[in-house]
Write a structure and sequence with these properties.
Elements lengths: L2 E5 L2 H23 L2 E5 L6 H8 L9 E5 L1 E3 L9 H8 L21 H11 L6 E5 L23 E5 L6 E5 L1 H6 L2 E6 L5 H9 L16 E5 H4 L10
Parallel strand pairs: 1-9, 2-3, 2-5, 5-8, 8-9
Antiparallel strand pairs: 4-7, 6-7
The structure holds 6-phosphogluconic acid.
Length: about 230
């Protein structure tokens, strides 16, 4: 793990994660001219995306947005990760529409949708934000899933354990190749898996979020409650 931030209040968690994202996006643009930013779905990052939209320092003309996973619903469906990210972030910043790369998980042929998305994904994402589920999943890589054994393909269709079940997800090599990776988690229901992901014996097939172990972890106190590691409150 490169960094463990445990925030004492929800507003601090949001601010710390948003500042980290803004810093890493800007660093990528400075170093390489653009930033391939991959975003998680779920509930936890929503306020972070709103805070990120308010970060005036980001040159959105040079950012490409990708998604870690998507549910098999149309882009205007309440369960769509794309819709969530659009409302919280993309509609509030001057990002060129052509730089927003939505996973088309609603296509009847999800296999083809996965292959098409793989062609869009750069070999290395610059910045990757992930979440973790109470079962230890990250992106839509669920415990025991065959997608966790994938070494060649970078995007695959899966049937997950969280509704809506049918999804597209990035695979382990994409997380491993990410230049900067962060995980955000809050709430006591995540505490046991957060501890196993960061400190437990390495077994990503059982605790997929271990794929992001080397990253920066942004936690609230409830999610960090079972860790023995030293915590930094900012
Ligand atoms: C999804 C996600 C998923 C999410 C975790 C945590 O589409 O469901 O990308 O991996 O990050 O399930 O979700 P919450 O933040 O809602 O707890």
């Amino acid at each position: 793990m490169s960094e463990l931030i445990v925030a004492s209040e929800p507003t601090k968690l949001v601010r710390q994660a948003a500042e980290w994202l803004a810093r890493e996006v800007t660093k990528a643009i400075t170093e390489r001219g653009s930033c391939a930013l991959c975003l998680a779905g779920g509930r936890t990052p929503q306020p972070v995306y709103r805070a990120l939209a308010a970060e005036a320092s980001i040159d959105w003309e040079r950012v490409d947005v990708f998604f870690s996973d998507e549910r098999a619903v149309p882009p205007d469906h309440p369960d769509s990760n794309y819709l969530m990210v659009s409302l919280a972030l993309l509609s509030r910043v001057p990002i060129p529409p052509a730089r927003v790369h939505r996973m088309e998980a609603e296509r009847p042929d999800r296999e083809a949708a996965a292959r098409d998305y793989e062609r869009l994904l750069p070999l290395r994402l610059d910045v990757l934000l992930l979440g973790i589920g109470p079962d230890g999943h990250t992106a839509s890589l669920f415990p025991g899933s065959a997608a966790l054994d994938e070494r060649e393909r970078r995007v695959v269709p899966v049937v997950g354990a969280k509704a809506p079940a049918e999804r597209l997800t990035i695979t382990p090599p994409v997380i491993e190749a990410g230049r900067q990776v962060a995980v955000i988690a809050s709430g006591e229901d995540k505490a046991a898996m957060v501890a196993r992901a960061i400190e437990g014996p390495l077994a990503p097939k059982t605790v997929p979020a271990q794929l992001a172990r080397r990253g920066s972890w942004f936690l609230d106190e409830a999610a960090a409650a079972r860790l023995t590691a030293q915590k930094v409150d900012r």
